[in-house]
Amino acid sequence: MDYPNDQAPGAPVRSGIPEHGRIPKYYAVKARVAVLIEELGEGGLLPTERDLAVRYEVSRETVRQALRELLLEGRLRRQGRGTVVAGPKLEQPLSLASYTEGVRRQGRRPGRNLISLDRFACPPSLAAATGVALGEPIWHMERVLLADDERVGLESTYVAVARAPFLATEFDPDSSFYGYLRDELGISFGDADERIETVLATPREALLIGTPPALPMLLIHRVSRDTGGNPLERVRTLYRGDRFSFTTHLGAVRD
Fold first, then answer.
1. For 82-100, how does the pLDDT look when each residue is reduced to its tens digit (9 = 90+)?
2. Beta strands 90-93 and 244-247: pairing type?
3. Does residue 201 or residue 12 have the better pLDDT?
């Protein structure tokens, strides 16, 4: 049998293989398909489930389970009625850099599709995070995140109308909101608090992002402040778990 590098006999890590050494049939197929993925390269078309079942002498359901895991891991993606080898995941830094900057650093083309831009009276749940008094106007902007025209996430931004009074007429929704605040309004970000969790998208969110509802998502909640420590924005962003990973730099802990 062919093994991925980290599962070859004697390798230090044999992920997914139980201690008793009996490899589940689907996992053996997954290991062999992983080798095939390396041979095909990014964009390569995978054989059909039927062809793979014949090649590996297993049932189509066994093949389907193996492919399901590879899809969730982001190593494969659906394209039309076929399955192709996916490119590497996008690495987004956990910093105050914008989505635009993070995607461009990896040689990809960032973009956004505006879903809605609404203005309404600030509810209690948003008042503290945005620095807006109850009943004062607040913007809600919802956009689908793109990388080379591929839908990879969904972003909801809340900001006080007083901070960006002409957002609806001056701002290009396909561009960086951080860049607009900095370059057009002279507002600089000081610091932010973030919380990350794994969730499943709602049916509406899955439809907007173009993914199955069962696909795990990485959800980031961010509350940002300006250089004066004043509340600036609240952002809720869903990232496709099969297309994104997050990186950060950790310094040494000193006693």
1. 888 887 777 666 666 667 7
2. parallel
3. 201
**Residue 253, φ and ψ in degrees, nearest 5:** -85, 125
Those residues whose C-beta lies under 8 Å from the C-beta of residue 178, and which sit 6 or more positions away, are: 96, 98, 100, 189
Residue percentage of the chain with pLDDT more than 90: 43
Q: Which residue has the higher pLDDT, 104 or 178?
A: 178
Q: What's the one-letter identity of residue 137? A: P
Phi, psi of 17 (to 5 degrees): -100, 120
Amino acid at 250: L
Please name every residue paired with 231 in a beta bridge, in sequence order, or none if there are none: 225
Q: What are the helix (H) ranges across the chain?
A: 25-40, 49-56, 60-72, 99-104, 124-130, 167-170, 177-183, 203-209
Give the span between the Cα atoms of 183 and 169, in whole angstroms: 16
Q: Please tell me the pTM assigned to this model.
A: 0.70
Q: Give the CA-trace dihedral at 157, 71, 15, 41, to 10 degrees.
A: -110
With tokens 């014949």, the residue in question is 54
Q: Which two tokens stand for residue 47?
A: 């054989």
| Tokens found for residue 139 | 């913007």
Work out the end-to-end distance of the chain between its first and last CA atoms, rounded to an integer number of angstroms: 50
Count each helix (H run) and each strand (E run) in the chain, helices first: 8, 10
